[in-house]
From TrEMBL:
Top-level taxon of origin: Bacteria
Keyword tags: Signal
UniProt source species: Ramlibacter aquaticus
Keyword Signal: yes
InterPro entries hit by this protein: BCAA_transport, Leu-bd, Peripla_BP_I, TAT_signal
Descriptive protein name: Substrate-binding protein
Family, similarity comment: Belongs to the leucine-binding protein family.
Length: 451
C-alpha cells in the first residue's frame, strides 16, 4: 500500500456484499420483478440502464480510502453508507423522514453494494468503479474523502452515464469547474466554509492579522486556502505571510513549520486533512508554534480532536458539516446519532453523516422520479423542492448540483468542560447555506448533457 507502483485489484476481501432479495418485501410481485416502470418503456439503453435495475435488487459501487493518510476518515464514511443501506432496505423511519416514498429498498428493490479501497488515489478509485459498472451494472457510484478522487469520479460518471453521489469533497471545483450532469454533492466546501467561519474569526481575533497557511497540494487544499484567504483579506485586512504547500502523506513537517516560525504569523490556518492534519498539528505543538499562534481549522477533520487531544484544540475554531451535539437542536440528528452509536459504538463524525445523507437523498430522488432511468433521476435532483436533513431543511441547486445547506461553526472545548470522552466541540453557530454560496456560474460550472 506504500508503493505508487502497486497494481490495483478488487479481491474477495475488498468486496462486501450486502442486502437481500425481494422475498418478504410485502409488495406485489409484479412491482418487484418488472423491468420497467410504465413511463420507462421505449427509452433507449443508457449507462447501466435498464440492465442494472431489471432484477429484484440494484448494485452500488463504493470507493473509500481504507489505507493511507485518509483511512480513518474513509472508514467512518463507509459506516455511514452501510447504515443508510441497512435503513433503506428495511424501510427505517429515519429514511422515511427524508424519503417518504421509500418502503423497503428503492422502488421496491433491495440495495447491494461493493467496497474497494481507493487509498485516496484517483486512478485506484476509477479502476474499481469501472469494474463495478462493467461487471455489477452499478446504478450509482460513490466515493471521495479526497477531492481529487471526487473530481476523477465526476468524469467517469459523465462518461459512463452512471450517477455519482459525492462522498466527502471540500474542493470548490467538484461542483465548480469540474461539475458534471451526472454528479451531485451534499456536503459543504471551501467557499461556504470560508464564508461561514470568516466572520467568527474576525470577531474572535480582529482585523489586520498575519496568517500562515498549511495547504495540501491538490484541488481541495488550493481551493480552500484561496477561499479562506480571499474572505479574510477582503473583509478583515488579513495578510497571508506564507503558504506552505505539502504533498499528501508527508512524514515530516519540520521544514514547513520552520518557515512559518520565521514568517511573523500570528494565526496558523491548517488546511491539511486526515492523518496529515494530525501530524502537522502535533509537530506545530512540538515546535512551540502552538499555543503561541492561534490555530484555525477552516475545514474540520473528523477525529482530529481525538487524535491530537483537547489541550491543542481548546478554543480552536473550525467549520464543519455536522457535529453530534446537534441532536439537541434537530430531531432527525438525534435519531441518526442514536442509531449510529448503537450499531458502531461511537458518536458519528461528519463523514458518516455526509455519507448517510447522500444515500438518503439519492433514494428520495429516485423515488421522486419513479424510475432508475438516469436522466429522469437527474431531473428529479434538479426539480426544486424542500427536503429534510439532519441540519434542517435543505434543497438542491439545479445549476451546479450542489446542496444548499447550513455550515456549522464549532469551537474546541477545554478538557475540563467535556461532558464525555467524545464531547470535543461546542457548536457556536449554524449558518444558513444560501448566503454562503457563490453564484452558480462563478466557478465555471457547465454540467454537460443528459445523454
Amino acid at each position: 500500500m506504500n508503493s505508487s507502483k502497486r497494481s490495483f485489484t478488487v479481491s474477495r476481501r475488498d468486496i462486501i456484499r450486502a442486502g437481500a432479495g425481494a422475498a418478504g418485501l410485502g409488495v406485489l410481485p409484479g412491482l418487484v420483478t418488472s423491468a420497467f416502470a410504465a413511463d420507462d418503456k421505449g427509452k433507449p439503453a443508457l449507462g447501466t440502464w435498464p440492465a442494472g435495475s431489471q432484477g429484484d435488487s440494484v448494485f452500488i459501487g463504493i470507493t473509500v480510502p481504507r489505507t493511507g493518510t485518509y483511512a480513518l476518515q474513509g472508514e467512518d464514511e463507509l459506516k455511514g453508507y452501510q447504515l443508510a443501506i441497512e435503513h433503506i432496505n428495511e424501510g427505517h423511519p429515519l429514511i422515511k423522514a427524508i424519503s417518504p416514498k421509500t418502503t423497503k429498498g428503492v422502488l421496491g428493490k433491495q440495495l447491494k453494494y461493493g467496497v474497494a479501497d481507493s487509498a485516496a488515489k484517483p486512478n485506484d478509485a476509477v479502476q474499481a468503479q469501472q469494474r463495478f459498472i462493467t461487471e455489477n451494472k452499478a446504478v450509482m457510484i460513490t466515493g471521495g474523502t479526497s477531492s481529487a478522487v471526487a473530481v476523477a469520479l465526476n468524469k467517469l460518471a459523465q462518461r459512463e452515464k452512471v450517477i455519482f453521489v459525492c462522498g466527502i469533497s471540500g474542493s470548490n471545483d467538484t461542483t465548480g469547474k469540474d461539475c458534471v450532469r451526472y454528479g451531485v454533492r451534499q456536503n459543504f466546501y471551501g467557499e461556504t466554509a470560508a464564508n461561514a467561519i470568516g466572520p467568527a474569526l474576525l470577531k474572535a481575533y480582529g482585523k489586520n492579522r498575519k496568517a500562515a497557511f498549511m495547504t495540501p497540494d491538490y484541488t481541495y487544499g488550493h481551493t480552500v486556502t484561496k477561499s479562506v484567504n480571499e474572505f479574510l483579506a477582503k473583509n478583515g485586512g488579513w495578510t497571508m505571510v506564507t503558504n506552505q504547500v505539502s504533498p499528501l502523506g508527508a512524514p515530516d513537517y519540520s521544514s514547513y513549520l520552520t518557515n512559518i516560525a520565521n514568517s511573523g504569523a500570528e494565526i496558523l490556518v491548517n488546511v491539511n486533512w486526515g492523518h496529515d492534519a494530525v501530524l502537522s498539528t502535533q509537530q506545530a505543538k512540538q515546535f512551540g508554534l502552538l499555543p503561541k499562534m492561534k490555530l484555525v481549522i477552516p475545514y474540520q477533520i473528523p477525529f482530529l480532536a481525538r487524535e491530537v487531544g483537547p489541550e491543542i484544540t481548546e478554543g480552536v475554531y473550525a467549520a464543519t458539516d455536522f457535529w453530534w451535539t446537534l441532536e439537541d437542536k434537530y430531531p432527525l440528528a438525534k435519531q441518526f446519532v442514536e442509531a449510529f452509536e448503537k450499531k458502531f459504538g461511537y458518536k458519528p463524525e461528519w463523514g458518516a453523516e455526509n455519507a448517510y445523507m447522500e444515500f438518503a437523498l439519492w433514494a428520495e430522488a429516485v423515488e421522486h422520479a419513479g424510475t432508475f432511468y438516469p436522466p429522469d433521476v437527474i431531473k428529479s435532483y434538479e426539480s426544486p423542492r424542500k427536503l429534510n436533513s439532519f441540519v434542517g431543511e435543505v434543497s438542491w441547486r439545479p445549476e451546479d448540483h450542489q446542496l444548499v445547506r447550513p455550515v456549522v461553526i464549532v469551537r474546541g472545548k477545554a478538557k475540563s468542560a467535556m461532558r464525555n470522552k467524545e464531547d470535543f466541540w461546542e457548536v457556536v453557530e449554524v449558518v444558513p447555506g444560501a448566503g454562503l454560496m457563490q453564484k452558480p456560474d462563478a466557478f465555471g460550472c457547465n454540467l454537460g448533457s443528459y445523454t
